[in-house]
Amino acid sequence: MKFSIILIIFFFLFVFPIIAFGDLRVGFYSSSCPRAEEIVRQVVQRNFNRDRSVTAALLRMHFHDCFVRGCDASILIDIRKGNSSEKAAGANGTVRGFELIDEAKRMLERACPSTVSCADIISLATRDSVSMAGGPRYDIATGRRDGLVSRASEVNLPGPGSSVSQALQVFTQNGMSLDQMVALMGAHTVGVAHCSFFRARLSDPNMDPGLQATLGRICRPSGRDPTVFLDQNTSFAFDNQFYNQILLKKGVLFIDQQLALDPSSRGLVSTFAQDDDGFRRSFVDAIVKMGTIGILAGSEGEIRRNCRVFNTP
């Protein structure tokens, strides 16, 4: 009898694992707001149908949120008199997708007032947009709460001109490994960058001459700051082609190209370039882990009624 019980427990733990991270769990809103994930998905789908670049926008927003105070939606707070929020930081000047989060929040407030956090909306919307771009579909544990602080002075993110070691320092400070960093950087397969982020690379001998010429033409007009795709091959598809591109010296950003040149990360780049399934698995592991950084749960923080402002006491 005791042996049978052990077998049953083993079956449920390993065949149907319970996915949970501390106070987060998959299906957190199954009772309090059963349609929460469906509502977010519908909003993302409408936006994706109009503009497939929302995947890149949401991935960047999610990263920029989690790597400052943790995944607490502090990046969504508007700049107001007396509050220089994270949006005021230079690194966040080109972050976009806020209107999509607003739309999802309005619908959720009508369906389930003061129930679903803005932090969870960012995580869920990012997950859904990755799937819509052809990337992996993965479960997200929810239950995050929204932060009560947002300061531009706290934004310290690896930039486009960072070396691998400089970027890794920020990742390790947030409990993430080199493997996870390289996998997350694969999100650049659907990304874009403004010319101002890489103009210095246009004379770099580590850039493919053909790409240099192309980028030079795009970035030549004065008074403008156009964007270019970071993956020049399959620009809107979530796949492993980014890694193949940087192995060919077609990395647009300095940090991207350094991933393929630095001895510490070059092997991982080659592995992901050859194994799309392996990249997808590693990406899921990395983005799920990222989504647990510095979370607020239980009675911490709040559930904002408007993602752009803290609740009135």
How do the strands and helices of this protein lay out in sequence?
Elements: H1 2-14, E1 20-21, E2 24-25, H2 36-50, H3 54-66, H4 98-111, H5 118-132, H6 164-173, H7 178-185, E3 192-194, H8 209-219, E4 227-229, H9 241-247, H10 254-261, H11 263-274, H12 276-290
Antiparallel strand pairs: 1-2, 3-4
Active site: 64 (proton acceptor)
Keywords: Calcium, Disulfide bond, Heme, Hydrogen peroxide, Iron, Metal-binding, Oxidoreductase, Peroxidase, Secreted, Signal
Catalytic activity: 2 a phenolic donor + H2O2 = 2 a phenolic radical donor + 2 H2O
Concise structural overview:
Helices cover 45% and strands 3% of the residues. With 313 residues, the protein is mainly alpha-helical.
Strand order of the largest sheet: 1-2
Share of residues in helices: 40-55%
What's the main sheet like?
2 strands, antiparallel
Mean pLDDT metric = 92
- Helical element count? 12
CATH class of the largest domain: Mainly Alpha
Low-pLDDT parts are 1-20
Query: Tally of extended strands?
Result: 4
Helix/strand order: HEEHHHHHHEHEHHHH
CATH architecture of the largest domain: Orthogonal Bundle
| Structural class by secondary-structure content | mainly alpha
> How much beta, percentage-wise?
under 5%
User: Which value, in Å, is the CA radius of gyration?
Assistant: 20 Å
Termini, distance in Å?
56 Å
